[in-house]
Amino acid sequence: METRTLKSKIGIYMLLSVLAVLVVIPFGWMLLASVKTSNEVFSIPMKLFPKEFQWVNYQTIWDKIPLLVFFKNTFKIAVCTTLLQVLTSCFAAYGFSKVEFKGRDFLFLVSVTTFAVPWQAYMVPQFALISRMGLTDSHLGLILMQAFSGFGVFLIRQFMIGVPNELLEAARIDGLSEYGIFAKIALPLVKPGIATLVIFTFVNIWNDFMGPLIYLNEEKKYSLSLGLQLFQGSYGAQWHLLMAASVLVLTPAVIVFFFGQKHILEGIATTGIKG
Fold first, then answer.
1. Contact at 8 Å (CB) between 73 and 135?
2. What pTM was computed for the model?
């Protein structure tokens, strides 16, 4: 019995190792291509390593497109959207888990179903709403469009359920207001959930392409994803520079995910067992 269990574990680890290698290969190729010359990227036969590492590619890309402007725009959009989404999700999650009112469960069900509906299904009415508000071609419109998340409400609510009601009742008896209970008791106890939502939201917004493509028109307002498209349209044959730009764009998201992966795993596990 123990031998079978050991063999099954070895088989699972080998399968996961193969899958991990398959996932890493494209990123490895992109990284190596970013330090090659243009001719070496698609040379036949293919060479894994360049004859000489072209680190100058990372300097050249800054001169080709206003990459710093795109970085600032993307950082602004990602940070503001993340803060708003965390704020709205925490308020809604607290209400759906700790405040009794008529129709609470139905409203929660409605809010949760929003993240099960494909974004393409409500893309047109959402664009019409933003247009009537006069917020097209602005970062504010793009931020407000993603300020609420059904997934965020669901995630934080699962953590809120784990907060003992007795603790909240004791705080009410001591005279603490509902906002005080929310800020001083509930939020500190759901920090792992908030950290998970922050990481998910930031990485998602940082890599978003469709939103900026639809709502932004002026080049000076472009995000990094649109900046890469702009570069590809202007310098499509220079794949070594495009790969260098892609590495620069992905690096912040990878760093955030790397340092926050512990919170993500804890958040997913906790979400699955609570409620």
1. no
2. 0.83
